[in-house]
Amino acid sequence: MKKxxxxxxxxxxxxxxxxxxxxxxxxxxxxxxxxxxxARTEGLLVVNDRFGTKTSSFLSYSRGDDSxxxxxxxxxxxxxxxxxxxxxxxxxxxxxxxLIRMQGSALKESVMGSDMSYEDMTGGKSLLxxxxxTLEGTEEIAGEPCYRVSMxxxxxxxxxxxxxxxxxxxxxxxxxxxxxxxSGKLLKEITADDIRKVSGKAVPFHMVLKDxxxxxxxxxxxxxSIEIDIHLEPGIxxxxxxxx
Length: 244
Prior knowledge:
Number of domains: 1
Strand order of the largest sheet: 6-5-4-3-2-1-13-12-11-10-9-8-7
Number of helices: 6
CATH architecture: Clam
Order of helices and strands: HHHEEEEEEHHEEEEEEEH
Shape: globular
C-alpha cells in the first residue's frame, strides 16, 4: 500500500505533458505548427559545390501541405516556375514556353543544381500516414533540447525508407533531420536555425541541406520575408496560371 501511495505521489509531481507525450503527439504538434493555410515567401537559394557558389532569388506561394508555387526572380532564372499539387510536380521554362510534368526517375533529379530533388518537394500527406514513428528519447541540437523521433516507411511509396527527426521540445519545429535508404545509408541531412515566430508559428529563416552522395556540396535556404494566412487567388496553383 505504501509503495502504491509513493508511486502516485511521484506521478503527480511529474507534469502531465511529459508523461503523456508520444511520438505521434510530437509529430502532430510539429505539423500543426508547420502547416499553414496560406503563405507568401521571398528568399534565397544558395548552392555551394566544387564549382563555387551560386545564389538564386525566389518568390513562393503555398496553401496547406499540398500546393506550392515557386517562381525564380533572379536574372538568370527569371520566370522559371515550379508547381506542386499534392504529388504532382510541373516545371515551366519561359524561354522555351514549355511545360514539363516531372514523373518517374525524373523526380530524383536536382532542383536548380541544388542538394534538393524534385522528389523532396512531393507532399500532401501527414507523416503519420506514411511512417510508423518511435520516440527514442531527447537530445540537444545546437544547445536546444529536442525530441528524437525515428520514422520507418509503411510502404515503398515514399522517397525515404527511414527518417530521424530532432524536434524542438518547446517550439515543435525540427532542428535536424537525417534521411536514410532501405539499406541504412544516410542520404540527406537537414539542419534548421534562426527560428523566429511569425503569426504564432515557429519558422526557420535559415536551413542547410546536404546530399551525402555529393562531394563538397550543400544548399542553403534563406527566408527574407514571409506572410502567413493571407488571401491568395484560387487559381494561383493551376496549370493555366503557370504559363503566364
